Amino acid sequence: RPQPITVLGLGAMGAALVRSWLSAGHPVTVWNRTPARADPLADAGATVASTAAEAVAASPLVIACLLDDASVDETLTTTDLAGRDLVNITTSTPAEARARATWAEKRGARYLDGGIMAVPPMIGVEGSGAYVFYSGDRHLFEERREALTVPAGATFVGEDAGFAALHDVALLSAMNGMFAGVAHAFALVRREDIRPSEFAPLLSGWLVAMSQSAGKVAEQLESDDYTKGVVSNLAMQVAGSATLLRTAEEQGVSAELIAPYLALMERRLAEGHPDEDTTGVVELLIRR
Ligand code: NDP
């Protein structure tokens, strides 16, 4: 029998989660700071609680999908968490997630943190690729897995409550780098007689092919050998990067998005690693 679930936070993401659990037959109790946002969900079958405390008392499984850690704090301080399973899928930093886990456990709750790898339209859609990173209480995860996997897939990444946030933010950070590259590429071709819609599939295809490089970086990091399987060595890549900068100059495009990465490669080369891959940049980034 589908278990009752409470959802705190009915923003774009919270509302999408509620709809998918309702569709799967779960009794859902909802609460939102601005009450009007609950109206469409009440029409869809959710029970609306008038306070967060009332919502938390309604179900053993409580999902928090709020703006940030501060809003989680504000919402939960007035609630009794004893005996609850708190699943907090609000985006936070790893340290915030760890502190929230300790905070919740002190209040008698089991705690699971989550990082959502999806946008709201992907939630509850079979085959959309949506999933959530989870970390923290493994037993909670196992026991609630069936309900948790209704809106999106679930990937458990460890008992350290901060790991879901860390994985989430690592992937989002890589995505930002990709978006920066995409912006630079479009800027380069923008003033020419090249249609963005014809250029886009070439760009996507190239990025998909190059994304395989993550596997090689992993292999080199794990073997502590950054020359392993090198195809394009650092000396060659640094020489090539001068061409990237000159082309930006020629096209009247600022190199501010790509310059920092190229500068790091140059620094690693200057430290005497011509035969390596670009993996040595990882070391330069880690502050000692
Ligand atoms: P929205 O901005 O749509 O909603 C924010 C929610 O937080 C609202 O319910 C809002 O209530 C509530 N809120 C904000 N501040 C407070 C507070 N001080 N006290 C109580 N409630 C508060 O955000 P989303 O639903 O899109 O996102 C929710 C979480 O999901 C975020 O952590 C986000 O990073 C994450 N996420 C979102 C994705 C997306 O594409 N949307 C993708 C992946 C993760 P009110 O209605 O009263 O303002």
UniProtKB/TrEMBL annotation:
<feature type="domain" description="NADPH-dependent reductive aminase-like C-terminal">
    <location>
        <begin position="160"/>
        <end position="285"/>
    </location>
</feature>
<dbReference type="Pfam" id="PF21761">
    <property type="entry name" value="RedAm-like_C"/>
</dbReference>
<dbReference type="InterPro" id="IPR036291">
    <property type="entry name" value="NAD(P)-bd_dom_sf"/>
</dbReference>
<dbReference type="InterPro" id="IPR013328">
    <property type="entry name" value="6PGD_dom2"/>
</dbReference>
<dbReference type="InterPro" id="IPR015815">
    <property type="entry name" value="HIBADH-related"/>
</dbReference>
<keyword id="KW-0560">Oxidoreductase</keyword>
<comment type="similarity">
    <text>Belongs to the HIBADH-related family.</text>
</comment>
<dbReference type="GO" id="GO:0050661">
    <property type="term" value="F:NADP binding"/>
</dbReference>
<dbReference type="GO" id="GO:0016491">
    <property type="term" value="F:oxidoreductase activity"/>
</dbReference>
<dbReference type="InterPro" id="IPR048666">
    <property type="entry name" value="RedAm-like_C"/>
</dbReference>
<protein>
    <submittedName>
        <fullName>NAD(P)-dependent oxidoreductase</fullName>
    </submittedName>
</protein>
<dbReference type="InterPro" id="IPR006115">
    <property type="entry name" value="6PGDH_NADP-bd"/>
</dbReference>
<dbReference type="InterPro" id="IPR008927">
    <property type="entry name" value="6-PGluconate_DH-like_C_sf"/>
</dbReference>
<dbReference type="Pfam" id="PF03446">
    <property type="entry name" value="NAD_binding_2"/>
</dbReference>
<dbReference type="InterPro" id="IPR051265">
    <property type="entry name" value="HIBADH-related_NP60_sf"/>
</dbReference>
<feature type="domain" description="6-phosphogluconate dehydrogenase NADP-binding">
    <location>
        <begin position="5"/>
        <end position="149"/>
    </location>
</feature>
